[in-house]
Amino acid sequence: MQNGTFLAAIDLGSNSCRLEIGRYDHGQIFRVDYLKETVRLGNGFDDDRNLSLEAMTRGWDCLARFAERLSGFAPEQVRAVATQTLREAKNRDEFIEHGQRILGFPIEVIAGTEEARLIYQGVVHGLPQSDEHRLVIDVGGRSTELVLGVGTQTLQTASFRVGSVAWSMKYFPKGEFTEQAFYRAEIAAQAVLEEALQTYPRSQWDAAYGASGTVGAVADVLTMAGWPANQISRDGLNWLVKCLIRAGNANKIQLEGLKDDRRAVIGGGVSVLRGLMELLHIDTLQVAQGALRHGVLLEMVDRHDHDTDARDTSVQRLSQKFAVDIAQGERVSQVACNLMAQLMHEASVRTMELTRKLRWAATLHEIGMAISNSDYHKHGAYILENADTVGFSLPELHRLGLLVLGHRGKLKKLDDDFEEPEFVIQLLALRLAVILCHARRVPDDHGLKLSCNIQRQRFTLAISEAWVTNYPQSTHLLRQECVSWQKTSWTFELIIA
Questions:
Q1: Alpha-carbon distance 400 to 395, whole Å?
Q2: So what's the pLDDT on residue 339?
């Protein structure tokens, strides 16, 4: 990555939306700007788990302001990620589609374990290098992430559906603080978090670090009250709970260091944090400066260097775990990418990214055979849609699963996705590559000329008479492929010259 490049990360959280802009310089990212807005998407759910129009509008208005600040940024300079609220929301597609139009950049919903991994990366890059085993926790608005790691390597990641917004709404709905309410909230939080005791016991880590919203808010209050700076102790938390109970209501809290945007969710955040620290026997929690958005920025730098893209490593691990035929995957990958190159002549960052995703799909197209040879493409799509896969966002995994699902068989199952030309190009290239590699050897694809007319939604593959004579079975399969595309809004034609 070139020195001086500006990068931007957007974290669409359940309580706040944050924009971090940094400048890359000799392997480091230096802050240029930081914007934060308290949007509280997480308290906008109705009984059917749909976000209310009011909550979505607050988010869209925030994105419009972020978009103005990001004017002039290229697509590869910006990454926006969404967390638990949009993981839960049934109508998240409505929010995301409109939000992307406003923002001008894609919005990715990431899995909880991926969120945890990125949080850890953001935290450890702000800490001194050490061989200590570190436990990192982040109490968010609707989820709490736990990560165990050494250096920059994560060993365990987990995400639990418990957070400051959700717990404040459930156990402190009117902002009233009582000893009984805190007791109930903490017991409920520990019930959700209890399984963490098996994975993150005190014997497995040397130091505990806290990141982001709730941890930062609590630390600010404790520091202003005279407690040691940059750390949270269980004694300090107990003191804070007594202060909140003494105040009786969120509107009556008078604590130095507590910002107004945290007042309504402090009860839920403190109850989750105290319950977690007691459960895991954390006597002192060190306050870290890094957070999810910093991990996203670092990941953008890593992805620029293809050798360090976590997604490549994940694909390799999946192929090994499910005993994929690596040689066949490589053959299909090479042919598919060659075919797509004939359709996408522009050597852009976008083309490179689409090619990489096609290569991943080709590598894993037979992953479902680990379950059954029958309908293995369906099994493969299920595996990819439901795997905790490092580096991938949920939409990326969904698209990868669709390519695997569609690499063979009828195309009717993908009707809703034929409006996206880029996806159709990837799909056709993959299907043709699978056909050409049907004998499980390197095919003779020299002289095959694939072209397309996007406006007319038409693909043409030109082959020679000699090729037809030499490869009758492949020709037969290609003719069948033409018939398959007749049942879609696109056309695939075979021309023999």
A1: 9
A2: 94
Q: Total domain count for the chain?
A: 3
Domain check: are 75 and 164 in the same one? no
pLDDT in tens, 344-357: 877 677 888 899 99
Q: Which of 367, 311, 363 is nearest to 334 (CA)?
A: 363
Which residues of the chain register pLDDT less than 50?
Answer: none
Closest CA to 63 of 29, 97, 110, 87: 97
State whether 182 and 270 are in the same domain: yes
pLDDT tens digits, residue range 414-440? 877 788 899 999 999 999 999 999 999
Q: Are residues 53 and 182 in the same domain?
A: no
- DSSP-based helix, strand, coil % in the chain, nearest 5: 55, 20, 30
If asked whether residues 150 and 93 sit together in one domain, one would say no
Q: Which of 44, 74, 109 is the last residue of a domain?
A: 109
Pair 24, 33: CB distance under 8 Å: no
Residue 182 within a domain: yes
Contact call for residues 6 and 21 (beta carbons, < 8 A) = yes
The residue range of the domain holding 103 is: 6-109
Residue showing tokens 């609590």 = 218
Average pLDDT, the chain: 92
CA 381 – CA 367 distance, rounded (Å): 9
The gap between the terminal CA atoms of the chain, to the nearest Å, is 46
Segment 154-177, tens digit of pLDDT: 999 999 999 999 999 999 999 999
Last residue of a domain, one of 75, 109, 143: 109
